[in-house]
Each structure stands twice: as C-alpha cells, then as structure tokens.
C-alpha cells in the first residue's frame, strides 16, 4: 500500500561541488510519484527542521532545479548541529505536524546518525516514516561505500592544483608545501598524486593522517628529493599527527582554536603550512620555501567538477527516492564498484554507516608512509571523470654551447 | 633588406596561465619567415641566455607546441634575475656568437627593461638586432596597455573562487577573508567583485593597495556588513599598506622574510590572512572567522583560463614576430581596446613600458576605498571570456509554520 504524504529533503555538514545534484535527484524523482503531495526542503539542515524553515520545492521550476544541480555548495544551506535524542524528538514532532512521510538527509556520517535516530523515534511512536540517508563528503570516509559523492570533484581540484604547482615550481624552483583538507582520512591529500605525469613531477612526498608524521623523517625526505631534483613538492594533510596521535598543528603551535566539538581548527588558517616552512628553513639550507593552504577553495570552487561525480551524486538522490517510494524501506544509499569502471547502488542499514569513519587502507599507502601506491591511483583514476587536463613539456633538442664550452 | 639570422625567445618573471600562448605565437609565426634560420628558446629566462641553455624550437612539433600553448606556466622556465648593464653585456655576447638577430622576451616591466638595455647595447656596438618585449603579468600593471595577457585568466580564477566562497559562506555563515596576489596594483583583488550576482553576495568589502588600510575602518566595515547580512566576505590584496605606505603584514607581524630586492615576502604564507582573522576575533564578537590565501593556485591552476586572454596572449606573440620580421622595428607590443569589446596591437617604445607600473585608476575604486565601481566591472567583464560559470539559487516559496507560529 502506498504511503501518502509529504517529502522533506535537507543537507548537512560541509558543502561539496555536487551535493545539489543529490538534492535535485531527490526532488525531481519524488515529484513523479502520485502518493507524494508536496516536496519540501528544510533550510539550514536539521536546525531548519526544528525551526520549521521549509521551502516548497514542488513549486520550483525544473529549469532552475537543473541550474542549481550544477551549482556547488548546499542550495538549502547547512548546519554543524549534531542532534542528540532530544533534538531528534523535536525534528520528529515537526515532521508529524506537517504530515511528512518521507525524509531524505544528504550528508556524512553524522547526518547518517541523525537519520538513524529519527527513524528509531518514528518506529517507537508508531508514526510511519521512511527515512533515507544520502551520502556526501569530500573526505571520502563513509564506510560500506566504495567512494563518496563529492570526493571525485574535490580530488580533481587537488590534482589540478598540483599539476599547476608542478609547472610553477619547475619554472621558479624551490620547496612547495600544499596543505589539503582531511582531518582523519587522507583520501583527498592522496589525490595530489594524480598530478604526476613526467618522472620528476611532484608531489614527491605525500603525508597522510593515517601514518605518524615524524619531523626528522620529513626533513630527511625533503633533503633527498631536493638534492635529486633541485625542487621538492609536498602534499600534506591538515590532519597529520605524531606517533602519539597528537595533531602536528597543536604540537608545534601554542595557540589553536577549538570548535564546539573540541576539534582543533584545521581549515581557514595557514598555520600548519607556515610551521612546516619554518622547520625546513631552520634545518635545511634551502632558500625558496613556500606553502599554500588550499582551504575552502578545494570544496567550493565553481567550475571544477568531475563528470562521474556529478552523475553519481545525481543518481544517489534519485535512487534514494526510488528506495523509499517504490520499496518502502529505510537506510543509507551506498555506492558499490561493480566493474572497471561501473557502479551500482544499494540500500544499507543505517547503523553500518552512521558515526563511523573509513581511513585509507594499507594497500593505498607506500611502505615509507610518505606517498601512495599504484593501487590507489587505479582506484581514484575513474572518479576524476574523462576530462582531466594535461600538462605538456617542450621536448626540443638542446643547442650546443659556443661560449661556455 | 631582410636581416637573416636566428630567433631567440625567453620567458621572465612569474608564470601565468597563458604565457605559453605567447611563446607558441612567436615560434610558429617566426618559423614561417625565410630569413629565420633557427628558432631557439632560452631556458630559465635571461639567466639561460648567459649560460647558453638553448633548445632548438625549430625541431619541436607543431602538435606539441599547440599542447604547450594550452599548458599554464612558463614552458621555458623562468628567472627572477634583474639584469644590470654588465649582465646585459653578457647576454649580448651570447646573442652575437650564436648569430641571433631577433630577440623576444615575454615578461613584465622588468623584462621590458632588460629588452631596452640589450637593445641599446646592440645599437652602440653596431650589431644589428631586433629586440621585442611581449607583455604578460597577472598583476595587470604594465603601462600603455589597456590590460595585460595573463590577467584575464587569473582574474577569472579569483572571481570563480569568490563565487564558490559566496555559496560556502551562505551555507555555513561567518566572516571569510580571501587574500589575493598583488603587491602594488589591486586589479587582481578587484576581480573578486565579479562574483557578485545576488544582492547579498560577497565580496562585501574589497581592500586594495591603492588605498590606505586603516584597521578601525576595517573593523567598522566588517561589523556593518555582518549586522546587515549575518555574513561578511572580504577580498584583501596581499600588498595592502597603511597611511605611511608601510605594508600591513610588516606592521602587524614582527617576523617577515625579505627577498633579494628587499621586498617583504607576501605570497607562499598565510600570515596576513591569519593576522586579519585575529584582529576581527579580538575586536568583534564573531565566532566563525576564516581566511584563505589564494597563493600560487591563482596563477598556476590548470583548467581555469579565459578564452579571450588565451587568444590575446597568442596574438601578442604572433604580432611581436610580425613587427620584428616584417617591419624591422623594436619595442614592446601593447594591447589597446578599440571597441566594446575589440582590441588591436601596437608597438610602443620600450622606455614607456620598462620599469614603471600602473595602479588601479581612481574611477575604478569606490569613494570609501573599500570596493570597486561599476566602471571597473565594465572594464573587466569582457576579459573574463564568454564561459564564466554562474551560481543559482532556490526561489521556491516558504512554507507556513505550524508549530512555531
């Protein structure tokens, strides 16, 4: 029997380049079903639900929705609120009074947990509700999923940035450190490896949160590369930690900001990059040492998107609506790699995705813990889409010297 | 009479996204002329000339040259060397022994000065040489030129970055500071204004090196915007100075690096952004304050280029070869706007372009000195090319509240 009622969709956590594809996937697919009376969007994630900040997306034009789909960041805005049970009860009250029977929440592992709790509350009180979590995160750290929507585009930005850095640092040599997002998982930083085309291309060194960052090893790595190539390009994850899991940023700098969850602030500051530059300058005799912190550009830059990521983000939204409206089931939509390269989507139990995070597996990191493996490259390559730019070099023969023979 | 001999081309200063278009313009055009016996490229700018590091571009394939043209950064590499008269004499010796009769140098105002001196030396010693300067700089600060090749693409990157930042900060509100390159000229920072589409879009404030940066005014500007919109997006030029022309970075921070010319290091560090964040946090009661320093990404990012900039960079290279080889004259190729939008190229006397720099004219900066004018927007718009991405928003009607009436 068809459950008649309204659909509600919301977006949580950090924005990505393709999170609006999932939103539009849910909206356009839901609007086709006769049992759906309205499709609402909640502004500001879950906080917009408890405040009843809804917009009626049934009255949005398909044309504008398509335009929004290709716009990065969360069109319904977002929130960092992590709802507890009390918070979820309020959510549920609002869903009930508005006759919402289908709830879709696009976000990371915290959002999956929100969906899990809301779903439990509904079952307990006998209120029939379909609740589906739709994956997104540039960190690529959701369990069960082969990869997460949002990762491919952010990875493409990071790879393109390092391609450009390779050219820039070849032109004016020195040491360059690019600090990439990723508190616990190194997937995004690792994407920098895709910038390597020619044998001396960087990044020559890649440091991930999955392996301890030892200052002495770092310095000797940099020295070796610089002596070999006369330049050294380094990708560093903002979340690198020492042997005791202490973030390097806390260890090296006295004054750090913490967020409401007690996490050290990693983005929106150039501190880690500047500290690593200082260490190199103080210990190695290298003059030109520079760092950039990719910051918010890597997750919000307009005009750098992976086509594959775009399609998949759209499909997880569509599939979420289909699971709920055709099959009358709850869960988290997950992406599974079925071939090279093909994917399919499943509905996974929420408790298998909620809260937990995935790290880079061992076979993706080299033995020395300062770069990635070929297996990682093979894993990532299809996710970047077909239109990756390429760097090209002059191959003309050298001319014989006449004055300085 | 046709002057028979070799062509030499080199690239100087900071790389741009389209500097290789000019290189390839020179090479392909020069190769058509019967009096050209070889087309050489000097590696590492002028320093490669005195060291005779030449490659024979006559033996490079057209296909690979076309691929290089669309690759950012200097394919022949670059140098920060600023040659004096002694240095130029060495250059000239090398040109002579290799039978080089045509010299093309792609670069900014320092490179124009190099060409000027080499040209003078040649005339004095009676060695017949055509020497042409080809403009490039993301700073857009060359005199005589309406604008400079390289600026349009960097401006496009900055505008696209702020478009994304607008979406990101709308989604998770706060104060955001983006630090943009530009030591003396604010053109690149000003390009951020093109990100404004909707009435509350940022950047709400733009600080340029052309106007003194007064901390009290800055704080009151930020406060006003934040109270009005609940968010504040700021574009700041790395080169902002106080009333006494002291760089803010030097004033606020004790420990700064200086380069070989005594210039304070502005890029490759997040210091200025972090300092401005600190000032806001200490003085205004705003919790979420973030900064990014766009750094090297803005001049080297692969995959963000203005089509107009690309064509013009190619044409200045081609025209340079034509001026030297058809007309047998020296000078600097300059771009002139002839319509809305059309350009033409002239050959300008080197001393009118060498050394000097252009700042943002008064009619491009608003009265309060914290934003740009409509005239600036009209000036910049065509330079970004036809394919600027667009941000889109949901316009669906709000739903009436039921619980929290």
Main attributes?
homodimer, 405 residues, alpha/beta, Rossmann fold, 2 domains, 7-stranded mixed beta sheet, 4-stranded parallel beta sheet, 13 helices
How is this structure best described in words?
With 405 residues, the first copy, chain A, is α/β, with parallel strands linked by helices. Chain A folds into 2 domains: 5-149 and 305-352, 3-Layer(aba) Sandwich (Rossmann fold); 151-303 and 361-384, Rossmann fold. Helix content of chain A is 36%, strand content 17%. Chain A has 13 helices and 11 strands. Chain A has helices at residues 19-30, 45-50, 62-69, 85-97, 109-124, 151-171, 187-190, 215-229, 248-252, 271-283, 297-300, 307-327, 374-380; strands at 5-11, 36-42, 54-56, 100-107, 130-135, 175-180, 205-207, 232-237, 289-293, 331-339, 342-348. In chain A, the strands form 2 sheets. The first copy, chain A, has a 7-stranded mixed beta sheet with strand order 3-2-1-4-5-10-11, with helices on both faces. A 4-stranded parallel beta sheet of chain A has the order 7-8-6-9, sandwiched between helices. In chain A, strand 10 (331-339) and strand 11 (342-348) form a beta hairpin. In chain A, helix 1 (19-30) packs antiparallel against helix 3 (62-69) and helix 1 (19-30) packs parallel to helix 12. Chains A and B meet through strand 3, helix 3, helix 4, helix 6 and helix 10 of A and strand 3, helix 3, helix 4, helix 6 and helix 10 of B. Chains A, B: This is Pyrophosphate--fructose 6-phosphate 1-phosphotransferase. Chains A, B: Its cofactor is Mg(2+). Chains A, B: Its EC number is 2.7.1.90.
């Amino acid at each position: 029997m068809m459950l008649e009622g309204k659909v509600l969709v919301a977006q949580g956590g950090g924005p990505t380049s393709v999170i609006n594809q999932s939103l539009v996937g849910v909206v356009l697919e839901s609007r086709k079903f006769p049992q759906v009376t309205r499709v609402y969007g909640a502004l500001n994630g879950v906080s917009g639900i408890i405040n009843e900040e809804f917009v009626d997306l049934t009255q949005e034009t398909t044309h504008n929705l398509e335009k929004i789909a290709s716009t990065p960041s969360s069109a319904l805005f977002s929130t960092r609120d992590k709802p507890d049970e009390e918070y979820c009860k309020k959510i549920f009250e609002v869903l009930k009074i508005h006759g919402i029977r289908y709830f879709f929440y696009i976000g990371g592992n915290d959002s999956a947990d929100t969906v899990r709790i809301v779903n439990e509350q509904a079952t307990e009180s006998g209120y029939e509700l379909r609740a589906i979590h739709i994956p997104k995160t540039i960190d690529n750290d959701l369990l069960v999923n082969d990869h997460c929507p949002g990762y491919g585009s952010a990875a493409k930005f990071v790879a393109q940035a390092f391609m450009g850095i390779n050219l820039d640092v070849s032109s004016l040599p020195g040491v360059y450190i690019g600090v990439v997002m990723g508190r616990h998982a190194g997937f995004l930083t690792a994407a920098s490896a895709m910038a390597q085309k020619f044998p001396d291309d960087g990044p020559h060194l890649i440091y991930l949160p999955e392996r301890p960052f030892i200052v002495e090893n770092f310095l000797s790595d940099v020295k070796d590369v610089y002596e070999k190539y006369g330049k050294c390009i380094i990708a560093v994850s903002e979340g690198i930690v020492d042997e005791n899991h202490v973030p390097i940023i806390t260890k090296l700098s006295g004054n750090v900001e913490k967020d409401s969850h007690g996490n050290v602030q990693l983005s929106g500051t150039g501190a880690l990059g500047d500290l690593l530059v200082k260490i190199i300058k103080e210990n190695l005799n290298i003059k030109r040492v520079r760092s950039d912190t990719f910051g918010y550009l890597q997750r919000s830059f307009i005009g750098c998107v992976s086509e594959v990521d775009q399609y998949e983000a759209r499909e997880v939204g569509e599939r979420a609506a289909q699971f709920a409206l055709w099959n009358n089931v709850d869960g988290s939509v997950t992406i599974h790699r079925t071939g090279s390269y093909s994917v399919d989507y499943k509905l996974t139990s929420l408790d298998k995705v909620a809260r937990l995070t995935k790290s880079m597996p061992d076979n993706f990191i080299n033995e020395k813990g300062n770069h990635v493996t070929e297996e990682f490259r093979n894993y990532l390559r299809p996710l970047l889409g077909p239109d990756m730019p390429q760097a090209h070099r002059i191959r003309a023969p050298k001319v014989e010297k006449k004055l300085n023979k």
